[in-house]
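Sample A.
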Amino acid sequence: MQEKTLLTSSLLPLGFQYPGQLKRLVEIEALEFEPWTILTGDRLQQKFEGIKQRYPQRTLVPFAMREDLDDVACFDVQNNNYICIIHDYASPGWEQNNKRIYLTFHEWLRDAFEHFLERGDWEADIY
């Protein structure tokens, strides 16, 4: 079983800290908001290292990915830790083409959860 942890401070860019809301989601293992998954453990570390290699001109800290696309939600350390959605594996300079920016983690989480609710057939479960 994969350990449910975020990156340690020794791996993160100097001065970067995860928001408390993200730490709490990991702590209670609330990691699935279909189509989004919060990344933890080895999977997070591999994605972090891969993004650093593919986009060396940027300082991005990934924290979630879409399971149906190559989209990854990242803290953009060079831009006030705003959250950007990149299309991983796109050519450098095209990774963020026409993707939304969120000013806070809370804003991203609200949007992700709304998409999660829209995707389910919840009314069928009620009756």
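Sample B.
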Amino acid sequence: MDNLKPTSAFKLSAIASLVIGMGAYLIGLYNATLLLNEKGYYLIILLYSLFAAVSLQKVVRDKQQGLPISKPYTMICWVSLAIAIALLAIGLFNADMLLSEKGFFAMAYTLSLFSAITVQKNIRDMLAFKQDEYAPASPEIIE
């Protein structure tokens, strides 16, 4: 099961991407000339999206590994992520910002979303690797 273990470089790059994506988004939000309630909207959209994406990745992984997953929860995860992305798109479309600012927020958001999923996947892979590493070896049958 050594192929499940993510490399240190991959883990570090995923964490760095998450920090850079979220940091850029939050710094951009801090510096934006938006009203406080608009800044709150974009902050909550980021947090909601990250939670929905990580939850969805967990549900997909659980299902892949044969763990029982309820259909309503799976649907909630898919719908939540779709709603979060739609809310960001609608918010940016209607925002009174330069096109370059809208693009900046969209790219920082996308980087954060992808990185959060990757970090969660790496954590899950490391746990699976450690469980396999410490599992007792099955005795071989010698004939």
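B remarks: Residues 128 and 134 are 10 Å apart (CA to CA). The mean pLDDT is 89.
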